[in-house]
Amino acid sequence: MNATNQTTFVGWTEMPNRRGTIDIIWSCLLVAFTSVWTVLHLNLPAKNEGVRTVVARKFRWVVMAILAPDLVTLYSSAQWKRARESVQHMHSLGHTNWSLEHAFYADSGGFWLDSPDYAPFPVASATILHLVKENYIICPSITKEEIWDKSKADKFAKGFALVQSIWLVFQSIARTTQGLPISPLELLTIAFVISTIMSYFFWLHKPQNTTVPTILTFNSNTSTLATVLREAGPQAAQPFTDTPFDFVEKPIQYWKRRPMLQHFDLKRRPLQRLPNDTIMPGGSKMTWWEVMLTLGSSVLHSTIHLLGWNFEFPTPIEQILWRVSSLTLASGLFVMLAVERLLLLLGFRGQPCWIWIWVKPELKQGGWKSQVIDVWGAFVTCCLVIARLFLIGEVFASLRALPEGVYQTVRWTNFIPHL
Fold first, then answer.
1. What is the DSSP string of 366-408?
2. What single string gives the DSSP state of each residue in 344-368?
3. pTM: predicted TM-score of the whole model, two decimal places
4. Which end of the chain is more exposed for a tag (fewer CB within 10 A), N or C?
5. DSSP three-state, residue 221
6. Contact of 253 with 283, CB cutoff 8 Å
């Protein structure tokens, strides 16, 4: 035990008379793990993919959810936005049975088109809309109850994670009310909770862990994929990179993978599964409340670390690095966009990038100037990753010496009104 600036720090603390170190670690890790694992609603795997491949893919997304939970929230919101647009378009054609569940199911690779002249492949909601509008297929008759029957969502695990998350937030508010500090680990976990709850909301109607798709066929025996492509005109005559319906899907894809990553985990063409990054944030107009829902949770997650600005850390340098990392996370995206806008005004016409992996290649021009915006985006991405890694490391490193008040328990009886 030592005192610095009149704050008493203590090391590993045992229970049961007060909160123990292991109690803080266990409760936070339990909330974080169950939240991250249950919140992910990944698309259908390809046929004949092994368990190892599916688990490895989910593990990669778990890592992303840990390093950038606000990014996962943006992905879920983009899929939610696309699903809502699909429902509106289908309803305008008179197909009122088409629901958010159908749209999510379609965009996760739940519908496969079987043509007499071509091997089956998955089709997204935009392609289904095109085929239904042109009377090549009927609107899928599968009900949303049947779609949910295909889903293997663990409602108990989701409910448990949600209850644990709410309890952590409630307990932290109670501690603050009584003037008791919380640990950096608890603050970081609360940030995860905020993103997780919003991701739950956006993916509320998306089936989870579905593996068997629904097969769609043409209305007439004479209709084939070749017929569809021929009648679509010159736009469908170009060689495709993902599926024969690139002429429908590609124009609405705001971001695209870098060329070197286009075949990562996607070996066959046409695609045998729809990648989880097919639908990216941006690209379509949003109402003010959609913007608030989408960006509000991400901004709140990034800025909540600033609440630890005056936290007491074992050393002054750790406090400084916490503040710098928190500021980096809170302002990184806005600074990147502002500088990109400035560079565009100065005549730089490069390809903007999204955490380096995704780019807008159609904006790229020749010359060295075309690399500046790309390099700037990659630099900011590296800074954000480093800041996130420091915060994750520091919340555990700080457990070696926390303010004594962190281990004091909340007096719940103080919240009971005295008559």
1. SSTHHHHHHHHHHHHHHHHHHHHHHHHHHHHHGGGSEEGGGGS
2. HHTT-----EETTTEE-GGG--SST
3. 0.87
4. C
5. coil
6. yes
